[in-house]
Amino acid sequence: MKHSPVSRRQFLQATGAAGLALLAPSAAPKEIRPTINDVTGLNPVVVSNIVRPISTEEVNSALRNWKGSVSVGGGRFSMGGQIASPGSLHLDMRAMNRVLNYQPRERTIRVQAGMTWRAIQDHIDPHDQSVKIMQSYSNFTVGGSTSVNCHGRYVGRGPVINSIRALQVVMPAGEVLELSRTQNRELFSAVVGGYGGLAIITEVELDLEPNETIERVVQAVALEDYPTFFQDEVLAKGTVVLHNADLAPPNFGHPTSISWIKTIKPVTEEKRLIPRGQPYSLEKNTIWAISELPGGGDLRKAIDRRLFNTPAVVWQNYEASLDTAALEPRTRSISTYVLQEYFIPIAKFLPFARAMARILRERDFGVLNVSIRHSPADNLTLLSWAPVDVFCFVIYFKQRVTQRASVAVENWTRELVDAALANEGRYYLPYRLHPTPAQFMRAYPEATQFLAMKKRIDPQNRLRNMLWNRYLMPGSA
Predict the structure, then answer these.
(1) CB under 8 Å to 26, separation ≥6 — which residues?
(2) Among 411, 306, 301, CA closest to 362
(3) What would the pLDDT profile of 428-461 be if each residue is shown by its tens digit?
């Protein structure tokens, strides 16, 4: 059979069409959905969409217009998916950062939940006022801090709920409520420290206090003497504003007490707040050298000696305006820095401290520091991490970003949780979700009451995150 000749134009058209057919996808392109992660970079969660509200009304509107699950995040310093859930609508609250009402004479301030402690400090420092209770670093959002019921180094103050006057929240069905110790008290006690499981915090009203000058006093203390030392030389004095004690590797057995005490001495640092945007190159290089170089331990000792011998008198706001950038590695592509925390009754301080030190030495997993704080009992919060007076052990460590490293950390974390439980203690929930569900329920038996409240308030389980998916609503992720 004779074929008709094909022109060059026809040939190019035919081969071009065939080439396009080969290049064309066989199905519609896959939708790229946003990912929410935290400061560690270890917990990516793919969500459906991200909304950045600027008001309570916009939060309410987002809930009404979205029928699926909702997650809430602020500064993203929680380290185990507490800010996200797969497929959820994620509310990024950081644009809700306005002061709503400031009363300097009454020492109160009401702010939107996405405002950071540092932004509050900028606002109140000209009036010689300070935040009453916050974390040691100022980058956290107020709503996030409320959601985890944070604490810091403030002596005798306990968790942030003790300085919260009122909250405004949006409920899962869209209702806007005001919560306080006298208004909707049950919900108030459950939302603070409730990790976004019951309501979305949109406004927080806080107590403030005077901004005073404080002097650093550093002392070496024997481990077995520390509880008595703290009671007599810190708590009973009434003049210590901030306090912690540091335990250094490799033995974790010799506390260095660091107290900031009220003083009328002239300041050694004229700045009232730490300047924003510092590069912190020296701090980053020092942390790297301590954790990576053979002589890192000697460098740590040299730094501690300088701490003992350098006088420091500063404004309280200066010490309270620390920036987490000073703790950041130059990159998190190889290693990342992570926290854990354990709350131990005063009478069990020594047995837990020794058990913890043994686990840390045996596992040798790159702990940079253990900071000891104190909190009085918190009998107001439903999911209280301090049902009695406790010492708080904050473990700061360096971890490789490999799966193998995560498995190793998971194993020794469960050992530490068991040690805390054996000493009638608890662990803190804003960190990686390594503890087992059984360990969680032993540490927080009040979770059954919290779950009952959630089923009543949020029957469709709209407010979700990886924490509650794992421990209260398995299978809901």
Answers:
(1) none
(2) 411
(3) 999 999 999 999 999 999 999 999 999 999 999 9
> Distance between CA 77 and CA 97 in Å, rounded?
17
Element containing residue 45 per DSSP (H, E): strand 45-46
pLDDT at 298: 84
Q: Is 432 exposed, middle or buried (0-12, 13-18, 19+ CB in 10 A)?
A: buried
Interatomic CA distance for residues 255 and 253, integer angstroms: 6
Q: What is the β-pairing status of strands 70-73 and 89-92?
A: parallel
pLDDT at 290 > cutoff 60: yes
Instruction: Measure the CA–CA gap between 176 and 155, rounded to whole angstroms.
Output: 35
Could you tell me the pLDDT band of residue 27, with boundaries at 50, 70 and 90? low
Query: What confidence score (pLDDT) does residue 28 get?
Result: 53
Tokens describing residue 191 = 């939302």
Its sign, for the CA torsion 31, 35, 41, 42, is negative
**Alpha helices (H) along 34-87:** 56-65
- pLDDT for res 301: 83
How far is it, in rounded angstroms, from Cα 281 to Cα 328?
Answer: 10
Per-residue H/E/C for 94-155: HHCCCEEEEECCCCEEEEECCCEHHHHHHHHHHHCEEECCCCCECCCEHHHHHHHCCCCCEC
Domains of the chain: 213-269+279-432 (3.30.70.2520)
Evaluate whether 160 touches 384 at the Cβ level (below 8 Å): no
Q: How confident is the model at residue 30 (pLDDT cuts 50, 70, 90)?
A: low
Q: Which amino acid is at 340?
A: Q
Q: Say if CB 133 and CB 163 are below 8 A apart.
A: yes
**In 295-375, where does DSSP find H-type helix?**
296-309, 316-320, 349-363
What one-character-per-residue DSSP string does 138-204 give?
A: S-SBHHHHHHHT---SBTTT-SGGGGEEEEEEE-TTS-EEEE-SSSSHHHHHHHTTSTTSS-EEEEE
Query: Is a pLDDT exceeding 80 seen at residue 258?
Result: yes
Cα(167)–Cα(164) distance, integer angstroms: 8
**DSSP-derived secondary structure letter, 51:** E
How does the average pLDDT of the chain come out, rounded?
A: 92
Is pLDDT above 90 for 16? no
Which neighbouring-strand residues pair with 213? Answer: 315
Nearest by Cα to 371 from 346, 400, 339: 339
Length of the chain: 477
Q: Which of 68, 44, 65 is nearest to 53 (CA)?
A: 65
User: What's the mean pLDDT in 74-82?
Assistant: 97
Q: Are 430 and 441 spatial neighbours (Cβ–Cβ below 8 Å)? A: no
Residue 4's pLDDT is: 40
